[in-house]
Q: What sequence folds into this?
């Protein structure tokens, strides 16, 4: 037919779950120029097949939108895929030291080069001090980076190299653990640990791009098409930009740049900090945001409001059960955080906050309520990430203030060690209120999913399984009394809801005509898969902007 427009790709004879408002399913989907051209029955789309069309017979398989992981750390994860790892294993101190020593015996790296050890499980594993690491037969500086990225452990050589000693001041957003005399014992907690790790693990843009290329393939294999890097440093942005310039970026990348309490304190005003983020946005956001080709968008400002429950740096409204003298504290003052939220709203930046406990959530929600009152026309979509322990009245506040709850399903799957630790820290009543994901949905809150990789191993479909079951495995006890999530809730949180959280629901997150052709093909139907088998779902094909970025070797078409 003269001047006819045909599909570049037609996937037919399957089930196409669109994730639109009605949860519509179709039999076929047509793609053209990187966008979704049409959805419908096989017969309805038959006329779109032309001489150049790639026609794929799904043979009953399911197509759904590509996964949008709305809070992870892909550059950290990419760097941690390389090098020596303790593999998230629960080890004693002696086992940890022995594993590192065995690695050193086969490593002839010069003495002035850092040994970076990833995958150290401190929570549910063991503490490792400088005294333990000093027993290693090496002159190299040694740093252990914990799996949750909130702790590092250093030997004495490492402390010296970083200039950390008895006179080093405690940072406002973390802790340098010390002995009775005030000497650092080698363990550093929360945001300062992240900054020290960044300092010693730097890569050039070319090196960074190489590790990112491997990481994005791993993510595509799991069906991920869009990520939000929830704490992005210029080093990571340069690596992403290098991939983009070379035409090798196949992930859609959103980024959040951190503002620290120390930065606000040192500059004396929040304006300079927000202006710095705006400058990063202008430098690193790539052109063509409305085009199907993947790019980079920096539109979020990241704040750590509190720390972690296991080391008692999560800010509670009521004291810790095993330490009644403390609730911990917020890393920002109420005035600082409120001003930062207002400035973000005026600059068009989305506030994205690390929140673990109800004290931190209350502070953040109070700041956002003032932001909504004073900037009622602002279109920014603030998100509070993690939200492990909320107070009953806070769910409604999320909904009223249009605050996204950015949640990690897998955190409801506690190991025996963590279950015992949380019972000690919180008591029986409060542990029942951990990871209440269902209450957010039931309160009308927009819920977006995050894997927080590499805090947890990269396993999206296992994480979904935990969301459906609230347990690590059928052999583990179920956490608390909150209800299980539905398949629809779990998948929408990782598609259209996550797109909304990133301000991109107009172009991605669902399979509707005109949107980017970001989609995946699964080996089975998730809506009929038993919850305890959800982690066995495999992605057969991943497309970003209509281009195949991953295909399984077993794919029959």
A:
């Amino acid at each position: 037919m003269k001047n006819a427009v045909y599909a570049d790709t037609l996937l037919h004879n399957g089930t196409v779950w669109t994730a639109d408002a009605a949860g519509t399913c179709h039999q076929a989907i047509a793609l053209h120029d990187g966008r979704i051209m049409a959805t419908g029955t096989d017969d309805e789309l038959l006329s779109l097949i032309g001489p150049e069309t790639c026609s794929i017979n799904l043979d009953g398989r399911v197509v759904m939108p590509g996964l949008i992981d709305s809070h992870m750390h892909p550059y950290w994860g990419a760097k941690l895929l390389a090098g020596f790892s303790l593999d998230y294993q629960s080890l004693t101190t002696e086992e940890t030291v022995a594993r590192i020593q065995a690695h050193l015996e086969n490593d002839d790296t010069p003495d002035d080069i850092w040994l970076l050890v990833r995958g150290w499980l401190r929570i549910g594993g063991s503490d490792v001090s400088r005294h333990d690491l000093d027993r290693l037969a090496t002159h190299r500086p040694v740093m252990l980076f914990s799996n949750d990225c909130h702790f590092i452990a250093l030997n004495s050589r490492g402390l010296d190299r970083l200039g950390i000693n008895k006179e080093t001041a405690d940072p406002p957003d973390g802790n340098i653990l010390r002995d009775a005399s005030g000497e650092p014992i080698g363990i550093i907690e929360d945001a300062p640990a992240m900054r020290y790790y960044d300092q010693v693990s730097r890569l050039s843009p070319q090196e960074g791009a190489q590790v990112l290329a491997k990481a994005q393939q791993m993510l595509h294999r799991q069906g991920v098409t869009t990520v939000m890097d929830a704490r992005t440093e210029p080093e990571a942005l340069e690596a992403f930009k290098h991939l983009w310039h070379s035409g090798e970026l196949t992930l859609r990348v959103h980024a959040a740049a951190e503002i620290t309490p120390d930065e606000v304190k040192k500059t004396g005003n929040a304006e300079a900090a927000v202006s710095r983020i705006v400058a990063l946005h202008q430098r690193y956001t790539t052109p063509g945001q409305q085009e199907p080709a993947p790019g980079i968008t920096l539109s979020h400002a990241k704040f750590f409001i509190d720390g972690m429950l296991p080391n008692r740096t999560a800010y509670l409204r009521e004291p810790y059960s095993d330490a009644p003298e403390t609730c911990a504290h917020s890393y920002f003052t109420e005035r600082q955080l409120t001003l930062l939220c207002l400035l973000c709203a005026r600059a068009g930046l989305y506030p994205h906050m690390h929140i673990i406990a109800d004290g931190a959530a209350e502070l953040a929600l109070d700041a956002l309520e003032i932001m909504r009152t004073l900037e009622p026309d602002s279109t920014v979509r603030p998100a509070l990430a993690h939200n492990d322990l909320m107070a009953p009245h806070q769910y409604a506040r999320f909904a009223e203030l249009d605050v996204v709850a950015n949640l990690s399903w897998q955190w409801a799957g506690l190991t025996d060690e963590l279950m015992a630790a949380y019972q000690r820290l919180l008591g029986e009543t409060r542990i029942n209120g951990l990871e209440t994901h269902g209450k957010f949905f039931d309160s009308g809150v927009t819920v977006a999913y995050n894997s927080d990789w590499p805090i947890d191993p990269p396993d999206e479909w296992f994480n979904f399984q935990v969301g459906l079951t609230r347990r690590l495995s059928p052999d583990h006890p179920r956490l608390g009394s909150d209800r299980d999530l539905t398949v629809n809730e779990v998948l929408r949180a990782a598609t259209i809801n996550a797109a909304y959280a990133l301000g991109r629901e107009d172009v991605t997150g669902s399979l509707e005509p005109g949107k980017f052709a970001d989609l995946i093909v699964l080996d089975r139907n998730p809506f009929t898969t038993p919850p305890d088998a959800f982690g066995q779902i495999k992605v057969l094909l991943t497309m970003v902007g209509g281009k195949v970025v991953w295909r399984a070797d077993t794919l029959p078409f």
Observations:
- The chain has a mean pLDDT of 95.
- The radius of gyration is 24 Å.
- Residues 74-200 form a domain with the Diaminopimelate Epimerase; Chain A, domain 1 fold (CATH 3.10.310.70).
